[in-house]
Amino acid sequence: MTDDYFMSIALKLAEKNLGNVAPNPAVGCVIEKDGTVVGEGYTGIGGRPHAEVVALQNAKEKAQGATMYVTLEPCCHHGVTGPCTEVIIEAGIKRVVVATTDPDSRVSGGGIKALKEAGIEIKQGIMQKEAEALNIGFFYTKKLNRPFITCKIATTLDGKIATYTGDSKWITGEDTRNWIHKLRSQYDAIMIGSNTLINDNPLLTCRLPGLGDRSPIRLIIDSQGRLKEEHNIVKTADKVTTWVITNKEIEKKIKNINYLMVNSNNKHPAISESATRMTSDRKEPNNDKICLKDMASKLASEVCITRLLVEGGGVLITELLKFNLIDRLIICRSGKILGNDATPFIGDLGIQSIDKCYQFKKAKIMDFSEDMVEVWDRVNKVSIQVYDLRSNSQ
């Protein structure tokens, strides 16, 4: 068995609680001895216990002289719990294979250094690209001070998200909608604007069997106080954590709702005049008063969001794009056509030449019974890689 084989198992383990460990990374760990897996672990819900500790507990005395495969550099600092490096050393692990370093300034190479100084053989950079993709949200919060932001759009073949009357149920088929519910479970939070709240009155939960307790934190951009007691989100706020994002003091706060105060954006209105010309009354009103960059920063620092899924309307998506706050687009495209009077998923951008366009690269295409799901990643996004371990393996 190769190092890649055992690391691939560790990566699969890391995925199990993805979306439920923030602000910590989702880590997987495998302990191998004589070609056999003797211990497995992954980050617990809420971020603890750490994967390495769980794997060592499962391996028990078999960890002595074994090899550990871990998707992220073991921590070496004292936090709520002690350093994983100390536990690894005490267990008698002989060799540690690390996929990628930890971007946290409290670690960032220190964990590897501590293990080396204890005489443990280290191999670095095995499946590094896959490990960084898995924890891209954690890397973003440490390097860019904001979450990794994905926008999901259900659209027709001609790029529309609703009829001219505002009807949007259902553009995509049941299989696609079920896939989206699973996708929600892998994100820390899901966000909409107040207009989507008013028009759709959504729950924004995971409603697949077995995923009821994996619903993400719900975020509503609402600077006008449009959220009311009768909305489904309020009715379920005692079960699912919910935040209202606003730039105004709320005189009468709703029970079980949290409020995040962000700055206004006076220099660059978040809703441009051109964006308000979208062909529908489904516009997100007054989102121009919310500073989207300040919002993104505070979602990371104050709400501890690392991975954010946006399911808002066209105006919100347009303005996130203008501020370079969309890292991934997931377009769920049906075979339906609604025509030019329907609502587009993107508004006016004022682009006059092709070389000035926003550009995304195709990452994945999936076929469903009635629809096609396309995943597109932003081109020329800021690098979040600490350094390339693959050139430093030993």
Shape: globular
Q: β content, as a range?
A: 15-25%
What is the mean pLDDT? 88
Count of helical segments?
11
Largest sheet: 9 strands, mixed
Distance between the termini: 18 Å
Q: How many individual β-strands?
A: 16
The helix/strand series, from N terminus to C terminus, equals HEEHEHEHEHHEEHEHEHEEHEHEEEE
User: Structural class, from helix and strand content?
Assistant: alpha/beta
Explain what you see.
The chain has 394 residues and is of the alpha/beta class. It has helices at 3-14, 51-59, 84-91, 110-117, 128-134, 136-143, 174-184, 194-200, 232-235, 292-301, 314-322, and strands at 28-33, 36-42, 67-70, 95-98, 121-124, 148-155, 160-162, 189-193, 217-221, 242-246, 257-261, 307-310, 328-333, 343-344, 360-367, 372-378. Strands 11-10-9-8-12-6-13-16-15 form a nine-stranded mixed β-sheet. A five-stranded mixed β-sheet has the order 2-1-3-4-5, sandwiched between helices. Strand 3 (67-70), helix 3 and strand 4 (95-98) form a beta-alpha-beta unit. Helix 3 packs parallel to helix 4. The model is unreliable at 268-287 and 385-394 (pLDDT under 50).
